[in-house]
Input
Amino acid sequence: MSNLIKVDNVSKVFGEGMFSRSQTVAVKDVTLEIPEKNPKIIAIAGESGSGKTTMARLILGMVTATRGSVEFQGKDISKMNKAEKLTFRKSVQAVFQDPFEVYNPFYKVDHIMIRPIKNFDLTRDKDEAQTMIEESLEMVGLRPGETLGRFPHQLSGGQRQRLMVARAMLLKPQVMVADEPVSMVDASLRATILETIQQLNKDLGVGVLYITHDLTTAYQICDDIYVMNKGEVVESGDVEKVIKNPTHPYTKLLMDSIPQPNPEIRWKEEGPEYDKFLSDLAEFSVEEDSEFSQTSTLESVMILISVLLGTLAIILLLMISVADGKSDASAGFNEGGGGDLTDMDGFSG
Ligand SMILES: Nc1ncnc2c1ncn2[C@@H]1O[C@H](COP(=O)(O)OP(=O)(O)O)[C@@H](O)[C@H]1O
Ligand SMILES: [Mg+2]
Output
């Protein structure tokens, strides 16, 4: 069976030079495969500093391995010629954590979509480029009309993150390396982005390396999981098995840090207490809660009174000014109006 990606016994040591005083073993003896046939969604999970991003960068060829090798379609990525490198860089795409950093605030977001088309010479036809961009935007649930022509700050965090996925999809990659793609977006958008990633895998056969510190989302979308601790893979395999029956103490520790409605209830074990929690939640409504209803009645009465007082004040002012206008009428229309304006100028000057 051939692999799209094969990480073979890879280690990465930072600061391993003649003049370095301290060394960091960011990744240690990691072996991992993404098969060519029916590519999966594979999670790399672990807490901050466990070596996940370094793994992503190794696979993308952004850093070179200290020991071991990374292969793309059976070819060592550090030994590729120019043409092979180009194919590799097109076929393996990255989606990173903080999409705002990727954008140049002075360019419209279109720029980020046009660049890969130019870099990889996908087309030189303007209309064709536009169609390609619109298609990949729609693929991730973005409306071209609401996205193109805008500046990065005019989009929401979720839109920016999806734009990153759209940019990666433009190149029709075989592998997508997504490093904490949802850690900067809120819960409602998280689901949409994760669904998009799942669709890319199921519908288009894109192999996904999903990097996260969060076991909940890993469990939600992945087939296999690799749990990393201090640069080493401590446990790996089918996500269902690993999460439900963790054998390594570190995996158990990570799972204990997942917030649960009740600490007595463990992962996915929904007992009577959990059922009660859910039914309490369903029964709770704002209208029935006496504190809420009292506050809102009081508030609406106060608003009504202030609106009435405001209206009265305006009517009084109007009556006074009409009376004034009548007494000034003999002085002439133009002069009266001019006087007001002069007053205002004097005030500002
Ligand atoms: N370019 C670098 N130079 C030196 N040390 C680094 C570099 N990149 C990462 N590290 C170190 O490697 C370890 C793993 O980091 P990282 O791969 O970013 O972990 P994670 O993504 O899981 O938080 C950390 O101790 C980090 O400080
Ligand atoms: Mg990281």
In short: Residues 110 and 148 are 6 Å apart (CA to CA).
